[in-house]
Model the fold of this input.
Amino acid sequence: MYSNASRVLLLCWLLLPLLVSADQPEGEHLFSLNCAGCHGLDGRGGEHAPNIATDAKVQRLQDTDLARIVRNGIPTAGMPAFGSSLADNQLKAVVHYLRILQGKGPAASVPGDADKGRALFFGTAGCSACHMVDSQGGFLGMDLSGYGATHSPDRIRESILHPGRNGESRSGAITVVTRSGKKYTGVVRNEDNFTLQMQTRDGAFHFFEKSELARVEQQALLPEHGSRLSKAELDDLISYLAHSAGTQVRAGEEEDQ
Done:
């Protein structure tokens, strides 16, 4: 029989492969397939693995150090080695994508006013009801703190206008009811054929065996926002998301110094 720790590691290998798009850049594809099951799609950690996106100690590691960790794993911390499944060029691609998650990718030119975008995000656009930036806002949607660092302006625009088309619909809110009658409402963080991990409104993580659940109720996706936001407002909102991602990374580096 597998131990609980072994089962967790096995799940990390099995999570997410069917959700990976064929047109993803190689580093993003490999990270989603091999790393996101434990570290999260945004690299900010979960119940089974630490934050590797905004942690200043990880950010200071050299690329060669990061590649070595991915290649050899950290057995004492329960991290498996990927050297037998990833070639050297693939290890470099994973590290390159991690640098993007850390906000160190090339900056894109973004039109719009970031200050107006922030007012929209936390005001009339209603984004903060479900999403958060820099620990402010709701839990039911994806944390957008680093979203602008890992997605192009066009990808952000598409996600606002047509939510769910880019494989992010799984961030929608759900309610699970256990066989004992307990009910939890929150957002899916990880899922496979046998287990489900969710985060509730208070920020707590809950891990369920699907066999223990009576039912799972998926709430409707967010409505499309194109009819409510003008082109200028969209530019402002995109500018805020791009600007906040870079600002957050710089602030973390300054605090560590």
In short: DSSP finds ten helices and seven strands in the chain. The longest helix spans residues 231-256. The CA atoms of residues 62 and 197 lie 32 Å apart. Residues 8-23, 248-257 have pLDDT under 50 and may be disordered.
